[in-house]
Specification:
Elements (H helix, E strand, L loop, with lengths): L1 H23 L5 H7 L1 E2 L2 E2 L2 H31 L2 H9 L4 H11 L5 E5 L4 E3 L2 E3 L4 E5 H4 L41 H4 L8 E4 L7 E2 L4 E2 L4 E5 L13 E5 L1
Helix pairs in contact: 1-2, 1-3, 3-5
Length: 237
């Protein structure tokens, strides 16, 4: 806990300089928007802005890295789907959404009930803390056929990989949020494979991940996207 509090204090000091800089010289970015935002004439305090930035910084980094890695892993372990995506870039949007559904970047969130509610026969009193498992919802057999299977061709349905409603992740409401996934080696024309047998995934209360494994990359078909990569190389992740 002491380490976490120290890190939070250091982040605050980092944000102080950024916020002051944006007030002196506004830019086209989120911090500038926050610095000038108001709701019914009420401006956000500096501490509120720092708190928002504390959430935004790790949230954007963690979800981006995990969703990109999961998509790459899913495609490399399903060569036929990878080949189809390389041949038809129009499949990329549905491949990205399937990767997010299949391996939800963050599994759990805590929410507090605002009233008494009954959910699937379970009575939950007002003001109760509830752990919402997004990963489980995205693998609900009542909604998804064979939900454990990675399949970029499955029927497209909305998932809740980034939450829903008032609590949806604001970073992920923009198409630009999916852009990092679109530049993965798998989707830009790189052929590859993952060493067999299939690595077993590790699961924690917060996320799932694959263990250390070896991937083979070869045949860059779109020049300039990944410079200085040898014709055949091996990387571990």
């Amino acid at each position: 806990m002491d380490t976490a509090l120290k890190a939070s204090a250091q982040l605050r000091e980092y944000f102080v300089g950024i916020l002051a800089d944006r007030r002196r010289e506004p830019r086209d970015d989120m911090v500038t928007v926050l610095a000038g935002a108001d709701f019914d004439g009420v401006r956000m305090s500096d501490e509120q802005i720092y708190g928002f930035m504390r959430n935004l910084l790790p949230a954007g980094a963690e979800t981006t890295s995990r969703s990109t890695a999961s998509l790459a892993f899913g495609l490399l372990t399903h060569p036929a789907q990878l080949a189809a995506l390389v041949a038809d870039r129009g499949l990329l949007p549905q491949a990205i959404e399937e990767g997010i559904r299949w391996e939800t970047p963050l599994l759990n969130f805590m929410r507090q009930t605002t009233r008494d509610v009954e959910f699937h026969g379970v009575a939950i009193p007002e003001d109760s803390m509830v752990s919402v498992n997004l990963g489980s919802a995205n693998h609900d057999e009542a909604r998804w056929d064979d939900p454990e299977r990675f399949d970029i061709f499955r029927e497209r349905k909305p998932h809740i990989g980034f939450g829903h409603g008032a609590h949806v992740c604001i970073v992920c409401t923009s198409p630009a949020s999916r852009a990092p996934c679109s530049s993965t080696p798998c989707s830009t024309g790189c052929r590859g494979s993952v060493s067999a047998p299939m690595p077993r995934r590790r699961t924690s209360p917060a996320c799932t991940s694959g263990p250390h494994h070896t991937s083979t990359w070869c045949g860059i078909e779109r020049q300039g996207l990944i410079p200085n990569l040898a014709p055949t190389s091996k990387t571990s992740s």
